[in-house]
Amino acid sequence: MDYKAYIAKHINAEGISAEEIAGAIAVPPDPALGDYALPCFKFAKTMRKSPVKIAEELAAAYPTDGVVESVGALNGYLNFKIAKSGLAEETIRRIEEEGSKYGSSDMGMGKTVCIDYSSVNIAKPFHIGHLSTTVLGGALYRIFKALGYKVVGINHLGDYGTQFGKLISAYKRWGDRETVQKGGIHAVNDLYVRFNNEADEAMEREAREYFRLIESGDPEANALFEWFKELTLEYVKTIYDRLHITFDSYAGERFYTDKMAPVIEELRQKGMLVESQGAQIVDLEPYGMPPCLILRSDGASLYATRDLAAAIYRKETYDFDKCLYVVAYQQNLHFKQVFKVLELMGKEWAKDLVHVAYGMVSLEDGAMSTRKGQVVWLEDVIRRCVEKAYAVISEKNPALENKEEVAEKVGVGAVIFGALYNNKIKDIVFSYDKALNFDGETSVYVQYTCARARSVLNRAEESGIGYRGAKIAEPNASESELIKALAEYPDVVKGAAENYEPSMIARYAVGTAQKFNKFYIESKIMQAETDDLRAYRLALTDAALITLKNALGLLGIGVPEKM
User: Fold this and answer.
1) Three-state SS at 212
2) DSSP string computed for 334-353
3) Residue 433 CA, distance from chain mean position
4) Strand pairing category for 353-356 and 36-39
5) CA distances to 9, 38, 40 from 78, in Å
6) Is the sign of the CA dihedral 28, 32, 38, 39 positive or negative?
């Protein structure tokens, strides 16, 4: 049951729709106040009464029934307590029926969301700075899909620029095909680093010429470029597979080479292009921003030019309802400029473009680099986390089967969760020890809770004890708190989508796992006083396991059967 909609349907507030009331209902921070609360402050103007008076009148008029146990007014809030047994019955039955679909909905049916995330650079390995955009975008992809949206995941590859001329120059000087093929992306990166360390003006000119050859369609230059791209995508796919990341499009910057001219011409025809020191700009000073640079003085395009072309192409191709750009907060100004230019071009859909900004990731030493000054590769972070997970699991449960498989789920999960647990805009300091803490606010804690629940259910099933469709008992305090948390899950998923904030699901998972463990300790499950009570508690255990697995699944984290 949608309790918010149910409550709203029974409130008669003059001039206020049931949908508006349902949208305003929230869960109060103090459970003693009630299960749901309606703040009446926003209705004061429409109803021409004080919020306190509105709450009191609505409380007095609310009909009593078997669903809402009590209604009270306090300081302008209307507080509702749901009948515990009714909430338990409704929640457990719904989770049993929906299973892995619990938390999903069709609210996005018929709508399309494009998500631009990860955006790796060709010929450069993944470093830890790519972690947030990749797992944040991946989580949003799964969340919107669960809510019925058609989702288009876009990897806007960094495959354009003079760096590719440098790479060809370096390869022709120092590389050979066998060595590079064997060394893969790291061999390619070594060549690029060497070029930057040793380049003189003649080499820089040579690099620019090779890039010109790529742009002009030279067969040899483009064959080398495509080879470097192939090596990059082979490499990143291994990382994406481990992080459970998928894409529907790999159209990168180069894809828009022939799509920029029409955009530039449209800007020119609409009188928006202004010459400034030989460059072509769109003046955004009236809107409190620096000018948006469209063409450099040498006629070369820039990021903004390609992003304008990309946005228009995506709208024409996918007719999106929202287009999200999961890019670090350092690009705030860039996206404000691009969105404003599109708005000034008369693209009414510019309002549907969203920059999902996030903070930076560093290791505990406060840096993103090792002492040698080399970038910290993401594959090394994942490998080390999985190795540490294996060591911890081996110590805690030496007899555990499939330790490698469990360590993979635990270690990779810890990396993902470490990037998603805090509000996305916060900078993150990644700690291997904290991420793998069985007792902390970690994915490991939630995974271990799932394994604990699974163990209880296995014992019941091995003993031939059924629990699906069990008669629901009156919940005690810890059971009631767990049931309330489980009932809130669909709203948490919706909230995560509306706020582009997967951390809401990560924090929910930890909080619900804590409530389950309290229930596990305080309520005798297998040793319950009666068969009916035992079956009910097993059904609640099953509902908690399903919900926690669903929550972790939306984040891209697997759940081992045993730990």
Assistant:
1) helix
2) HHHHHHHHHHHTT-GGGGGE
3) 23
4) unpaired
5) 14, 5, 7
6) negative
For 63, which DSSP code?
P
Q: Annotated catalytic, 259?
A: no
Which of 4, 130, 322, 424 is an active site residue? Answer: 130
Core vs surface per residue 98-111: b (16+ CB within 10 A) or e: eeeebbbeeebeeb
* Residue 120 CB burial class (10 angstroms; 0-12, 13-18, ≥19): buried
Token pair 């809130």 in the structure block, residue = 488
Of the candidates 115, 185, 179, the one whose C-alpha atom is nearest the C-alpha of residue 144 is: 115
Nearest to 12 by CA among 62, 79, 78: 62
Structure tokens at 355: 């920059």
**Could you tell me the mean pLDDT of each successive run of 10 residues in the chain, 563 residues long?**
85 89 89 90 91 94 84 94 89 96 96 96 85 96 98 94 91 93 91 91 92 89 92 93 96 92 96 93 96 88 92 98 96 97 98 95 59 67 93 92 95 95 84 81 96 96 92 92 94 96 97 97 93 96 98 97 92
Domains of the chain: 3-82 (3.30.1360.70)
Closest residue by Cα to residue 291 from 328, 325, 341 = 341
Whether 124 is catalytic is yes
Residue 470 DSSP one-character state? P
Give the three-class secondary structure for 546. Answer: helix
**Could you say which of 84, 124, 355, 494 is catalytic?**
124
pTM of the model: 0.90
Say how far apart CA 18 and CA 306 lie, in whole Å. Answer: 45
Long-range contacts of 95-98 (CB under 8 A, 24+ apart): 95/486, 95/542, 95/543, 95/546, 95/547, 96/468, 96/469, 96/539, 96/542, 96/543
Active-site annotation holds for 244: no
Token pair 């490698």: residue: 404
